[in-house]
């Protein structure tokens, strides 16, 4: 784990905004949905390029969702039975909640998954994309507006205002290019097993797949807050 010199105060209320896919959970949901119709390789290649910042996120999302047309909602259940939480996600969220921090998911993924993650981890709010359904099946469309990099950053600033939290007491955690604006808006940013471009921009880089490893570093800040 590497870190640059920047701190937040865990003795005061704060806001932590998390990406979901490959951050709070260990999968990219859209890739796993695509596997249900035998198109995972095609969709995951687009996902990887988007996460590296090589493609426009909104355009790439629409392209990927179009490949999912016809999938039944009931098929989603097998992807989240059980929910594939990243190791340490529950511990980190509990640690932050115990210090009166607010927790938010800002995801380019989907509300169907984000709400379940939030319910278990006791996340205060979710902001994610909504899939369009018709007759219990995906239409292949995503409902506007799309949650992209700009929307993620706006989510952080919005909830700072709503909760009266100082922008200097905010954390953003993510892994892909779509998280860069959100991370730039936060006072402290964490690149979690992230793409090189994201690691270059982050305050803290954690390259071991266990979010609880952040707690030790945060506790050092707490002692000196």
UniProtKB/TrEMBL annotation:
Active site: 19, 21
GO molecular function, one term: L-phosphoserine phosphatase activity
Record's keyword terms, sorted: Amino-acid biosynthesis, Hydrolase, Magnesium, Metal-binding, Serine biosynthesis
SUPFAM superfamilies in the record: HAD-like
Pathway: Amino-acid biosynthesis; L-serine biosynthesis; L-serine from 3-phospho-D-glycerate: step 3/3
Classification via Pfam families: HAD
GO cellular component, one term: cytoplasm
Cofactor: Mg(2+)
Catalytic activity line of the entry: O-phospho-D-serine + H2O = D-serine + phosphate; O-phospho-L-serine + H2O = L-serine + phosphate
Gene3D superfamilies xrefs: HAD superfamily/HAD-like (3.40.50.1000)
GO terms under biological process: L-serine biosynthetic process
Record's keyword annotation contains Ribosomal protein: no
CDD domains on file: HAD_PSP (cd07500)
Enzyme Commission number(s): 3.1.3.3
Domain of life: Bacteria
Record-linked InterPro entries: HAD-like_SerB, HAD-like_sf, HAD_sf, PSP
Membership in a protein family: Belongs to the HAD-like hydrolase superfamily. SerB family.
NCBIfam families: HAD-SF-IB (TIGR01488), serB (TIGR00338)
PANTHER family: PHOSPHOSERINE PHOSPHATASE (PTHR43344:SF2)
Name of the protein: Phosphoserine phosphatase
Organism of provenance: Pseudidiomarina taiwanensis
């Amino acid at each position: 784990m590497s870190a640059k010199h920047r701190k937040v105060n865990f003795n005061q209320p704060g806001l932590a905004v998390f990406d979901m896919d490959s951050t709070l959970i260990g999968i990219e949901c859209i890739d796993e949905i695509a596997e249900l119709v035998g198109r995972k390789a095609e969709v995951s290649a687009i996902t990887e390029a988007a996460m590296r910042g090589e493609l426009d996120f909104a355009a790439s999302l629409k392209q990927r969702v179009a490949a999912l047309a016809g999938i039944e909602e009931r098929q989603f259940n097998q992807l989240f039975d059980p929910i594939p939480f990243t190791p340490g996600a529950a511990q980190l969220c509990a640690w932050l909640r115990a210090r009166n921090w607010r927790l938010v998911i800002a995801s380019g993924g989907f509300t169907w998954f984000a709400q379940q993650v939030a319910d278990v981890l006791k996340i205060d709010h979710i902001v994610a994309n909504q899939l369009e359904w018709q007759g219990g099946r995906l239409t292949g469309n995503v409902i506007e507006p799309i949650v992209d990099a700009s929307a993620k950053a706006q989510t952080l600033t919005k909830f700072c205002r709503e909760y009266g939290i100082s922008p200097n007491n905010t954390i953003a955690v993510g892994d892909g290019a779509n998280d860069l604006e959100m991370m730039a808006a936060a006072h402290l940013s964490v690149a979690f097993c992230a793409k090189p471009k994201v690691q270059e921009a982050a305050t803290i880089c954690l390259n071991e797949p266990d979010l609880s490893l952040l707690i030790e570093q945060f506790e050092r800040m707490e002692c000196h807050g």
